[in-house]
Amino acid sequence: MFDKRINIFTGHFGSGKTEVAINFALKLSTLGNKTAIVDFDIVNPFFRTKDAALELEKRGILVIAPRYANTNVDVPALPPEINSLFEKKEYRVVFDVGGDDVGARVLSRYREDILGDDVEMFFVVNTRRPMTDTVEKIEEMIWDIENSSRLKITKLVNNTNILGETTMENVLRGRQLIDEVSEKLGIPVAFTSGFKDNIGSIVEGNNKGGILYLDKLIKLPWDL
Questions:
Q1: What's the pTM?
Q2: Is residue 54 in a domain?
Q3: Which end of the chain is more exposed for a tag (fewer CB within 10 A), N or C?
């Protein structure tokens, strides 16, 4: 699941998409890859990749974020450094993209560069969120993002959680629902992600695909 050069992460608000994208970048780096992560989320001012920039940079990961990320200025401006990542083939790149069709629209600006590269586009799902708690809602969200970005989702990610109250039953029920989406749309499930305390007892026998354990790098306001 770490074999592509360009790795795009999308998902509805509350899916945990940013935490997954950050941890995916960290894993790429620990595997010995020169790694960059791009904060492509021009819609959501909260829980952004920029929040973890210091920790990521400390671990040798290049962080590219809009100038106004983490301010109260909402300007949909993207840094020109993004273009260079399509030329610097020595980098493995993670894109953290806005969590709806509006947020995904920014991808269409780079569509030709993306399609000309080695790319995976993940859709992160938390089935405990009201906008993605049925097969039909997940399917609609995928269609909206694909139509807006003009790119195809290639892999699904099960990130079902209810924060500190998450149980194994929650995670496995979420996986069952996402498996239904996978079968219906023909999109494979790449992995299940979560904090080790919550999903540490998952074994390959009841989890088709890989597991990505998360370190909590995005802090909620009440955690600070």
A1: 0.88
A2: yes
A3: C
